[in-house]
Amino acid sequence: MDLKNQVAIVTGAGQGMGRGIAEKLSQYGAALVVSGRTESKVLETARIIEAGGGNALAVKADISIIGDIKRMFKICREHFGAPDIFVANAGMSYSSDLIETTEEEYYKVYETNAKGTFFCLKEAGLYLKDGGRIVLISSSTTKYPKKGMSLYSSTKAAINMMAEIAAQEFADRGITVNVVLPGLTKTTHMEEDPLPEDFMHNIINSTPFKRLGCTEDIAEVVAFLCSKSSKWINGKQVIADGGCLC
Question: Which residues participate in catalysis according to the annotation?
Fold first, then answer.
């Protein structure tokens, strides 16, 4: 998967899965714009990429703010030129029973996961080079409904539909739009805020490989969908969960 001379934007790249995706795209040769809400974290991601011989620019951006999205794409064009690849990874996790979810929480999660991704997708459609690649990060919980996930999963289900329609709208320019649906993936966030042991045990036992996914697993899938080798995959939802039977 040769991404040399390609420019990629990855949102939510300050840590965890987003950082892993950005590092992987850099390893395959892409120049990176890494964005996130916390400036210190995206600067750290950029330093890691550059220490590995890559080229990265950190941009502080909150995708729930449309002005930040526009600025992120503008900075990319000014620094690297028009992007070839856009990965919408930024998102907000949330788990609570439906009847306990407040209006404030509803808007907070939808502002980032649904609205933010929608307007990122719009800017990508405006400014990506012809033949470009768009990958949105959703969740396997949209396929395997779980108690307490009505708010979070519904925002991710919206992303799935956005991708299917955008794939049709952008096809005349040779741009593909696909979605990756990760299963439960071990990240630094999970280490900071561990899930209940019985829940983790059930997920691990329901996976043929008897382990959780890691950022490397997801990043490789995303990198393939960002490559020219994936040109005949479009408007698809790729479940990356190791064959979990949950």
Answer: 138-139, 152, 156
CB 215 within 8 A of CB 175: no
In CATH, which superfamily holds the domain spanning 7-184+215-240?
NAD(P)-binding Rossmann-like Domain (3.40.50.720)
Where does residue 183 fall: left (phi above 0), alpha (psi -120 to 50 degrees), or beta otherwise? beta
d(CA 181, CA 160): 9
The pLDDT tens digits along the chain (246 residues) read 799 999 999 999 999 999 999 999 999 999 999 999 999 999 999 999 999 999 999 999 999 999 999 999 999 999 999 999 999 999 998 888 999 999 999 999 999 999 999 999 999 999 999 999 999 999 998 998 888 889 999 999 999 999 999 999 999 999 999 999 998 887 766 666 666 677 677 777 778 887 877 899 999 999 999 999 999 999 999 999 888 776
- The CA distance from 46 to 129, in Å, is 23
Residue with token string 């933010």: 116
User: Which sequence spans correspond to the domains of the chain?
Assistant: 7-184+215-240
3-state secondary structure of 97: coil
Instruction: Tell if the pTM clears 0.85, that is, is over it.
Output: yes
- 150, β-bridge pairs: none
Which residues does residue 213 pair with via DSSP β-bridges, in sequence order? 185
